[in-house]
Every structure is written in C-alpha cells, then in structure tokens.
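Lecture 7, part B: from sequences to assemblies.

Below are the input chains for today's worked example.
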Amino acid sequence: MIAGGPPLLEVEDLAVSFEVHGGRVQAVNGVSLSIMPGETLGIVGESGSGKSVMAYSLVDLLARNGRIDRGKARFEGRDLLTSRHAAAEVRGRGIAFIFQNPRAALNPIRSIGEQLRDALQTAGRARRNESAGRALELLEQVRIERAKDRFNAFPHELSGGMCQRVLIAMALAARPKLLIADEPTTGLDVTTQKVIMDLLYELGAREGLATLLITHDVGLVARYCGRVAVMCRGELVETGLTRDVLERSRNPYTQRLVAATPKVGRKLVELLPPAERAPYMAEASAREQAPSAETPLLEVRNIGKMFGPERSAGPFSTLARWFRGAAPEQAAGHHAVRDVSLTLNRGARLGIVGESGSGKTTMSRMISRLLDQTEGSITFDGCDIGGIPSASFAGSALRRRIQVVFQDPLGSLNPRFTAYEAIRNPLRRSEGRLQHEIEQRRVVDAARQAGFDPKLLGRFPHQLSGGQQARVGIARALVVKPDLLILDEPTSALDVSVQAVVLNQLALLRRQLGLAYILVSHDLNVIRLMCDRVIVMRSGQVVECNDVEAIFDKPSHPYTKELIDAIPELPASTLENTQ
Amino acid sequence: MTDIEWTVPGRSASIGQTWRILARNPVSVAALCLVPALAAVAIAAPWITPFDPNATDLDHVLQGPSSLHWFGTDPVGRDVFSRVLIATRLDLSIAVSAVLLSSLVGTAIGGAAALYGGAADRLVGRLTDVLMTFPLFVVAMALVAALGNSVQSIVLASAVVNLPFFVRLARSEVSVLRAQQYVEAARAGGNTELQILFGFMIPNALPTLTVQVSTALGWAVLNAASLSFIGLGIRPPTAEWGIMVAEGAANILSGFWWLAIFPAAALTFTVLCFNLLGDGLRDVIDVRTRR
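Predicted structure of the full complex, as structure tokens:
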C-alpha cells in the first residue's frame, strides 16, 4: 500500500490486564500491529474482545484498575509506554480520539464554538484572538452547515450526527497524525453513519490522517478500511488487507464473524456456522397456516398518535411568559405517527423500518396496547382493541395474545426477579396461580422454546450473558402462548454472532408455533432476512409499503433508496463457504 | 405426564453469598451485629439492669464509676448504668415507631404521586417543599407543644418531621423506575398498575429506602433525645438519654462528668450504628451486587 517509510504507530506484544474482585482479567494479550501514515486500519471484534482497551492503553486512558503488563508502543519513533509523560505529550496532539456517544463527550454547558476554541488553544494551534476564526474554519471543514449560526449552539441543540462532527472538528484542531475512532457511528442512524464515515474517509485522504477505526461492524470495515485486524478475547487473531481477510480468511473466528453479518443473498440459517444449523432447519409444523382469505389477525386503520403540547402552563410559566412579553402558549402538539394502516394475517411476518424519530416504536407500542392512539382503530381477531384504553388492557383477556420482546435485553428484565420468576410472572397474570408442577413445566417449556438452558433459570439477569438475557425476554413472551409477537429491535444490543442465533430462534418459533410477528428495526439487513412485507416509516408516516423483495430490488421512494444505499454492505464476493 | 426430570433451582443468591458480600465490609458486619444487640438490650432491659433504675439511695449519691456502679450514681443515688440501659428501650421504641410510620406513609404518598402524576403530584411536591422550608426541629417542638407532653406526641412529631424525606425519595425513585423498560415489560405481561407498584417498583426502590430508613432511625433517636433535652415530651423522673444528658450537664462543671457522658455516649453510639447499618444493608439487599 503506502510504500516505504517507517510506520506511524507500532505496537509490539502489548498485554493489558484489569484487577477485578478475586483476581486479574487479561483484556489484551500479546497484540502486535502497525499503522502507516495516512492509512485506515479497522479493528473489528465483538464486545469484550479488548479492541477499545488496546487503543486506550496506548495513550494512558486506561481505567484505574488497568495495568499494562508488557509490550512496546512507538509513535513516530517515540516510546509511548515508558512514561506517563510521553503518552500525555502525544494524546490530543499526535493522536486524537473520537468516542461512541458524541453528546456525552461534549461539555453540555459550553457552546460548541467555545469548546473548539479551547481545544485549539490547548493544542497550541491558535492564539486567543485568532482561535474563533480557526474554529469556524474547522466547523466548515467537517461540513456543518450554517457554521456561523451554530458556533454558539450548545450540544443539546444539535443532533447526534452533528455532535459527532463537532467532536471530529475538535480532534482535528491539533492537526493530529492519527485519529482513533472508537465506534464513532454506533447509535447513529444509517444515513447519518454514512455521512460521518464518508467525512472521516475524505479527511483522512486529504489531510494524510491515519485512522484506527474500532468497530463491531464488519460491513463498515469492508467499506472504509484498507486493512483490518480481527480481535477475539484479547488476542489478535488475524491482520491483513480487508479483501483478503473478508474473502479468504482461514481463521475460524473471522469466518464466523463474517458469516454472521447479514448481507444480500444470504439466508437466515447461513448466518450460523454449518455445525450449528441443524436445530434451526426444522420444517414448518402442521400448525403453520398459509396466509388465507380468512379474517386478518390484526387490522390497523388510519392510526395516529399526537403528543400533546408540553403541559407547562402552570402559574409560574404563565407568569414568566407574561414578563417576557411572550404570547400565551399555543396548544400545538406534534404527530409522532400519522395515518398509518396495516393488515396482518395469522402467521405473517411484517417489518417496520425507520430511523430514530420515525415513529416506529410509537407504532409498536400502540399495537401492543402500551400506549393509547389518538386517532384510528385497531382490530385484533375481530375485537376492537383500539377501544380499550392501554391502562386497563392489562386486565383484558386479549393481553395474553399480544406479547412484546423488548429492545434492551437487560433493561427489560426486573433486576430482582430470577429468570424463572421473570418468565413465570406473565403466566401468573394471565392464568392465575396454576398447580406447581404445571406452572413449572410451562416455564421450562417456554425457556426451552426460546433456547434458554433451564439450568440457568435460577440466575438473576445480571448473571446472564446478553444472548441469554434476550432469550429470557423471548421466553417470557412465549410462556402465555401469544398469537402475535411484537419484536422491538430485539437484537440491536447484541453481537452479530449472538444476533444470528436469536434471529434463527425467532424464525423457528414462528414456523413451529404459527405465530405472527411484527419486527421493528432500524437494520434493513435484519428486516430482509426476517420479513415478507415491509413498511418504511419516516417522520411518523408510511413512506413505502411492499413485499420485501420489491422494496430492496426496486425501491419506489427516494428515501427508501437512500436508506438502502447507506447500509455498509459486505462485498458480494465475501466468503460464502464457511467450511 | 409425570416426567418432571428437573426441579427449579432456588434463587442463586444464597446465605453464603450474603456472607461473602459482608466479608468485604467489616464495618457493616459490626453494624449488623450491634443493631440487633441494641434491640436485645432494649427488650431485655427490665431484667438485666443491676439496680432498679428509679430507686433512690441517698446514702450513695454522686459516686464515681466503680465496680458496683459501673457508670456511677446521680444526685439522688440512682444507678446511671441501669438508667442508661432502661432508656434504650424508650428511645428505640420511639424511633422505630416514628420511622415505621413516616416510611410507610411517606413511601405510599410519594410513590402514588409519582405514579399518577398530574395535579396530585404537584400538590404533594409543593406540600413537602413547604414543610421543608421550616427548621424541622422547630416544627417538631411546635407539634409536641401543641399535642401535649406524651410519648405519642413525640412519635407523631418525629414521624411528621421525617415524612418529607420519604415522600421525596419515594417520588424520585418511582419516577425513575417508571421509565424502566422492565416496567413496560411488566405491563405487557399483564400486570396491573398496582401489581407493578408492589411487585416491581417498591422492591427495586428497597435498597435506597433501606438506607433512608436506617439514617432516619438515627435521626429519630437524636430528635427524641433533643426534645426531652429541652424539656418537651418526656418528663423526669423517666429514664431517657436526653433528660439524663440535660440533668448531667448542670453537674459537669462540678466534676461529676459521668452523669452526662455515659448517656451521651450511648446516644452517639446508637446513632452511629444506624448510619453504618444503612450502608451494610444496601449491599445485602441489592441483588445486583451479587456475582
């Protein structure tokens, strides 16, 4: 690639461990790698692989209980690990950082312009009187529109993508040689992700900036990185040119990681390693019903949700407005969802896709009767459930038949319930106190259906892994034998390899139990694998609704097209054989 | 179909684990042992005092600590050690009943306010604000003065003074918990609002509430003693730490230090125990600290 010259950063046999209660945990174990000037190196791995710790240890940003056991790191020929001083010298100047949650990385009570000026002055790149001009230039460089107006804006007034651009501008303030980007676009919408990544890529090319991109997303690496290093459990399992690693890797971990990433033309079971596919290949049981002409299971007509105006019209705010000479508050609400209709047959699978703020979660909460709609009607199996207020739906006999799997596997489990109690709770609510043996069998059956090992039923949520937590959430929904499952981003908090298993489990359950589901997701690749029909939402309205193939092959709406283009795809030729 | 080859494992949190948590924190262990010991003293006091706490003995007035009278005797010859012991009973029962009352009522009011929101919430919020603008000890004094000098009025006054803390705590806890995803999941699982409150929210607020209860107990002991110190509520010759300190304080300059020091030490020790207990209990009750 970049010929000749010494590498910008050279890491040799780095090992980092953390002191935890009852011993030491090896987080990074013998990692060696190098980055050439101007190069983009991707470090990919699942959570807990040590990829972030590795980067943090280079510039002395480890947590207090962390320790560098051995290893060398040289940046432009200077040793980084011998003294704290060396690391502090380089941090923010030679090496700059951007983090995952951009809003949290900015000081909430200073305007972005001031923060940029601070960064410039600390780096010694601008004097006080000229820093404002330079800060403005930087904002324009990261393509913040109307930079002059936004100079005095506070972080909370900007979107997440905008905050990330400000952080990039701050990182660039010191004219670093190396930018370490730790999951820079996780939590941002795909279209925003594309803009940010394109920006980083372009800046790298123009300024000769080398980038270390730390990510869990193989697709992102495929699109933006020249070389990639794969990490697993603290060790570097493979390094090489991105194409070689993604297409011709011989390493089983890399193969598994690449295979688990959803992509065009790959079937659901193919996300799993061949040895693990068998249980999910089961054919549909007799209970699967073909979509027929009978009455649909769910019919949603012209549903809408208007969130009322902020009810701040207490005596104090009224008084405050009066003093400011402002007009009395206008009772203007805003529509989170407007005029959406859909029909779902028994055993059907529908996807709702959209970016944050598109109203997809509001939709799913209204259908699952956790939120009242303000307009329209919802009919479930002939009953007008839209007429039952959500506050009293818990007592309805239909509650059992519509169940929800929530987004955050840990957050959706009561920390004081064991897995057993969590699964038992909805059962008791819908069927009362059953005979002990029957109750136990129902809980264990549900756990098995969800692929949860019954031996772990006595554990508390925080004692389970993310995948296991997700399965408890699924078992809890299944135990009452629902007809309709609402899956609200069920795998967005999980690693791809775990996601592959959970998605397969859900698909298998649908085939075996004949239940219908609505999958809400921001991830088009997941929707493509899991659904027959898709609704694309934007700003509370349906942009497009069609069969999944039609949506992906020839999207009719420009927004759908934009969404599809923004997915960081693996190249079509990526290894198909996972042998 | 009788093939249950499998039994439900118990909660993974066993007694052994509780001990492991405690082993890491010896101060909590001390508090956890000392508070039951205090309670035992309070219950057993009438049987373990070496002398009748109210019997005067004019032949042995104002004697210093000795092997017979461990804490000395007072101006009318009563045994100070016996009086300190028997006072534990009165002071602790006042504190426990006052805190029990205010924690139950306060949690219910605060929890309901946060749960239902709206006008009721605002009203409760403003009322606690108003109550807290007064110096709380003055409120307690006024209440005791109005209700008359009795144990009940001290209990009631301490309860009222503690109430706003519990209301605020319960309110903020419930409004945080209300936004938790597992509460929404509970709703989807068919739990009614009341079942959610008692099955999901209160148990999860328990670690925080326990700490508050424990701290409040310390304050309530201090509050009861302070009221009787200034001559409100409990009257002499009843043995009570506050009164004993007040009576003894007059004699300190004359060199009879034991009259005030021992009841004061008992008071300090009790308050300290309750404060340490709070931290220890939180670690035990909060299942998330378990591995």
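Note for the exam: The longest strand of chain A covers residues 23-35. Keep this in mind when comparing with the next example.
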